[in-house]
Amino acid sequence: MAKFRRRTCIILSLFILFIFSVMMGLKMLRPNKAAFGVPFGLDLLPEVHQRPPHLGKNFDSQMSDKINSDTNIKNLKRVEITVKPSKASEPYVEELPPLNYYLHVFYYSWYGNPQFDGKYIHWNHSVLKHWDPRINQNNPQGTHNPPDDISSSFYPELGTYSSRDPAVIETHMKQIYSASIGVLALSWYPPGSHDENGVPTDDLVPTILDKAHKYNLKVWKSSGLLQVQD
Question: Using an 8 Å Cβ cutoff, are 117 and 197 in contact?
Answer without folding.
Answer: no
